[in-house]
């Protein structure tokens, strides 16, 4: 995964109105399809009177990057696609950006819809905490008790964190290591 890929740290929301239609943009981290489905179900439950709940998402899966745009009944390509364009242009993954629309009675036309949904996406992304996307790998190792604390501090410099430790004859540790530092950490561990 390229180091020029980003995601959002947490859910963020913003709202604006154009020609009496209310647009509520919500972006949230969705690391997998289960989180995506839960996020969309939550939006539908909280906005049952919405005219449209348009969304676009990009998720890194074991089979590669998947992405989709959904117009939710708006004319094809006028709603989900402008949102997806922002996600692609900013190299964002593992998130969903939805725009909830409450129709105000004035039609915007195809161009107006595309601008409105694109603007909503842009607004929420400008306010959201965008952070570099980091992939991790887990590694299980066994170390002597006397070496455990020193090793944990040494590996923390590479972003490694201890997920679990099982204290038996030796300490069995499961480490979470950023992908980019995995070879270095393995090298350090092989010399210990």
Question: What do these coordinates show?
Answer:
By secondary structure, the protein is α+β, with helices and mostly antiparallel strands. It folds into two domains: 6-132, Impact, N-terminal domain (Ribosomal Protein S5, domain 2); 136-190. Helix content is 33%, strand content 36%. The chain has a five-stranded antiparallel β-sheet, with helices on both faces. The protein has a three-stranded antiparallel β-sheet with strand order 8-10-9. A two-stranded antiparallel sheet has the order 1-7. The protein is elongated.
Number of strands: 10
| Alpha carbon gyration radius | 22 Å
User: What is the CA–CA distance across the termini?
Assistant: 29 Å
**How many helices in DSSP terms?**
5
**Strand line-up across the major sheet:** 2-3-6-4-5
CATH superfamily heading of the largest domain: Impact, N-terminal domain
Keywords:
3-stranded antiparallel β-sheet, 192 residues, Ribosomal Protein S5, domain 2, alpha+beta, 5-stranded antiparallel β-sheet
Give the helix/strand layout:
Blueprint lengths: L5 E3 L3 E7 L2 E9 L3 H14 L5 E10 L2 E7 L9 H10 L5 E8 L6 H19 L2 E3 L3 E8 L1 H12 L4 E7 L3 E8 L3 H9 L2
Antiparallel strand pairs: 1-7, 2-3, 3-6, 4-5, 4-6, 8-10, 9-10
Helix pairs in contact: 2-3
Quick recap of the structure?
With 192 residues, the chain is α+β, with helices and mostly antiparallel strands. The protein has helices at residues 33-46, 80-89, 109-127, 145-156, 182-190, and strands at residues 6-8, 12-18, 21-29, 52-61, 64-70, 95-102, 130-132, 136-143, 161-167, 171-178. It has 2 domains: 6-132, Ribosomal Protein S5, domain 2; 136-190.
């Amino acid at each position: 995964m390229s180091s020029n890929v980003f995601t959002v740290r947490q859910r963020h929301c913003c709202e604006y109105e154009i020609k009496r239609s209310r647009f509520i943009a919500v972006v949230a981290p969705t690391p997998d399809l289960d989180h995506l489905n839960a996020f969309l179900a939550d939006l539908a439950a909280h906005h049952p009177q919405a005219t449209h709940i348009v969304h676009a998402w990009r998720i890194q899966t074991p089979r590669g990057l998947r992405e989709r745009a959904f117009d939710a009944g708006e004319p094809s390509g006028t709603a989900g696609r402008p949102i997806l364009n922002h996600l692609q242009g900013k190299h964002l993954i593992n998130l969903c950006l939805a725009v909830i629309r409450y129709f105000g009675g004035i039609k915007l036309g195809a161009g107006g819809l595309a601008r409105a949904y694109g603007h909503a996406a842009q607004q929420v992304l400008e306010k959201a905490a965008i952070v570099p996307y980091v992939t991790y790998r887990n590694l299980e190792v066994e170390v002597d008790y006397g070496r455990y604390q020193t090793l944990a501090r040494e590996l923390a410099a590479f972003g490694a964190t201890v997920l679990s430790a099982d204290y038996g004859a030796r300490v069995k540790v499961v480490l979470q290591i950023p992908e980019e530092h995995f070879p270095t950490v393995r090298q350090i561990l092989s010399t210990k």
